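$ run holo --ligand "S-adenosylmethionine" --emit tokens
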Amino acid sequence: MVLYDRFGRPATNLRISITQDCNYRCFFCHREGQHFNARLEMTPAEIERLVRIASRLGIRKVKLTGGEPTVRDDLLEIVERIKPYVLDLSMTTNGSRLKELAKPLAKAGLDRVNVSLHSLKPDVYKRITGVDMLETVLEGIEEAVKYLSPVKLNMTVMKGVNDGEIWDMVDFAAKTGTVLQLIELEAPREMTETGFFRKYFYPLKPVERELEKRAVETRERRMHRRKKYFVPTDYGIAEVEVVRAMHNTVFCANCTRLRVTSNGMFKTCLLRKNDLIDFATAMRNGASDGELVEIFKKVVLMREPYWK
Ligand SMILES: Nc1nc2c(ncn2[C@@H]2O[C@H](COP(=O)(O)OP(=O)(O)OP(=O)(O)O)[C@@H](O)[C@H]2O)c(=O)[nH]1
Ligand SMILES: C[S@@+](CC[C@H](N)C(=O)[O-])C[C@H]1O[C@@H](n2cnc3c(N)ncnc32)[C@H](O)[C@@H]1O
Ligand code: SF4
Ligand code: SF4
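-- output --
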């Protein structure tokens, strides 16, 4: 069984922010659209119940995110509890704790990992993230490649900050056997006119055209109809994916995702405000599985493409 929204988009994908806490201070962070502070996180048992019910309704892929998911002490327990219900369980992390966690996470049931790596230059890395941890993250990536492949490297590209490093990152991906994911800077519509956004937004469309020229093969993913380019480098073929969400109607028309905030509220879209439906409180107030299923169905029907 799979649920469809009013725009014919299947809901097969769930992104759960398991915490708002983070050991980094990236200056561009969108906080997965959770712009309020909520101290009460879902417990591992609550996350398991959420995923169990979602899996009955067609969710096949779950992504753990945050904040920084690895700051939670009970991360391994969360992974262990939810893996039995999903085909593809992945996590997006800043990589700072991967060196020690990659192997245990794989053992607990995590299938793969995306690691944010916005620069290979220590000073630029620090300027972006606020911390001096590039070396630690590189070691973490090496470990992740052994246990959690395919490893994706998330590079959010920003004008005047790291846009000069795109092709070095393509080489790095080929060298390390990782997949490079180039991400356009994102913000809700009302923020696109701010000085901040104008200063740092770096459009990736021209980069896609160059990738297209260099690629020996191009594929398209179902989700977001994202393009994947296979590009020859001195180190072998690099796999490069482009995440270009801004003003992209095709991207939103092919969005299969639902989100859950760290305090257990469903969120229908990363860029929307006022689209929250409380799930955790219903669980805590003794809602039956049937009642939780109804909440889930209501959320799917609320989904709307953001750029349309
Ligand atoms: N607006 C928007 N941005 C997205 C969406 N999916 C991913 N992004 C952007 O891309 C960033 C990286 O996404 P990841 O957490 O690595 O996940 P992913 O690459 O989409 O997922 P997988 O391909 O399954 O690994 C997100 O934090 C967003 O900035 C989406 O559905 N909408
Ligand atoms: C919010 S973070 C959460 C997971 C983890 N802390 C990390 O940084 O990988 C998820 C991803 O969103 C990206 N990101 C954050 N703010 C963004 C923005 N304004 N535009 C585009 N990507 C952004 C980050 O670089 C990271 O790859
Ligand atoms: S590490 Fe992730 S959650 Fe933390 S500030 Fe950076 S982008 Fe945001
Ligand atoms: S509708 Fe568009 S902006 Fe919203 S989460 Fe989906 S792809 Fe992202």
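-- notes --
The first strand starts at residue 13 and ends at 17.
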